[in-house]
Amino acid sequence: MQVFHNKSKVIITCNKRLSPYLQDEVTALGYTIERAFATGVELNITLTECIKLNLNLRCASQILYSIKSFKAITPDDLYNEISAIEWEELIDFTGYFSVTSNVDNPNITTPLFANLKVKDAIVDRLKEKKGIRPNSGSDANKTVVHLYWKDAEADVFMDTSGETLAKHGYRKIPGKAPMLEALASGVIYATKWDKKSPFINPMCGSGTLAIEAALIATNRAPGLYRMNYGFMHIIGYNEEEFFAERRILKDQVIKNIELKIVASDLSEDAVEVTRRNAKTAGVDTLIDFQVCDFEVTPVPEGEAGVVVFNPEYGERLGVHSKLELTYKRMGDFMKKDCKGYTGYIFTGNPDLAKKIGLKASKKVEFYNGKLDCRLLEYELYDGSRRLPQTEN
């Protein structure tokens, strides 16, 4: 089956509000976007081309290659349509597969039932054609089939990613309440950081923002940290395509670079977690790790970089007085010690944001999980914004 060489509809998914940054990434790789929507983009490409996208995209979650689109009203319709697909040309009957879904259909009460129907249709087809029932379960580390079913419209995809692309593979120690790597990349893109000027990350936690900044600046793609994808378990996969793309990733890394990235935290454990994650990512030598209160984070003078906070949000209702003071101190620190920089605070608590004491020049919308968040931008002018009057 020439599935790797046939063009088809491909959906690249992402978390809500990351779509603009995903679009920029996809077009920068030379692909034409057919359609963009709130949680992803649609392309018309081959399964082989999905390999490059899987290895390069920072903001994506899954890359789904369409196998069949059809009408289905009832679960029996779904079973019959999926049974007609030549799964013996796609899935190794001695292997393992899992089923995921996005279902909104009035004739079923739970998506798990739809998953079961898909699994049964595939298993029954392979048993009929090959005489053996393949193993199936919930693990996404082998072949993954994805069902999209809304009302009477259905699409069956091969999930070419498998495990989510939103995790970039280097963070072996997550730390406390870590920011997802894909979200961190989107936040950095939103700051329009030039990848050359200082990047200051006080209250760094497990260091995701600082590490992602170093990866972006040195052109280290997520594919350097991962050796297993869904496309590897589809019949017809040529591993040379994968290794050829990986060689390109290695060659494009910028090795000799002068970069000032500072990651500080009051917690010695947090800084150690950041250091170890950065070492796994191969960027520990590019980051200045500091155990200190954020107010004494070293900020290079005379440069126009960015300073990015991702503080605790607290409860959305009922603001804690301790966090109120912390947010006020963040504002004071940026105003006093970060002149000439652009400041950013990522928060999911609008009440606490009012305590910063600075007027945001921009508010960029994000989600952290299901929490509605904002990236607040502050222009930290060195002196007055107004030009001085000319003396007579």
Automatic annotation (TrEMBL):
THUMP domain span: 75-136
Keyword Methyltransferase attributed: yes
Residues in Ribosomal RNA large subunit methyltransferase K/L-like methyltransferase domain copies: 169-375
A GO term for molecular function: methyltransferase activity
InterPro entries from the UniProt entry: RlmKL-like_Mtase (IPR000241), RlmL_1st (IPR054170), SAM-dependent_MTases_sf (IPR029063), THUMP_dom (IPR004114)
GO BP, sorted A to Z: methylation
Keywords: Methyltransferase, Transferase
RlmL ferredoxin-like domain boundaries: 10-64
Pfam family, one: UPF0020
Descriptive protein name: Class I SAM-dependent RNA methyltransferase
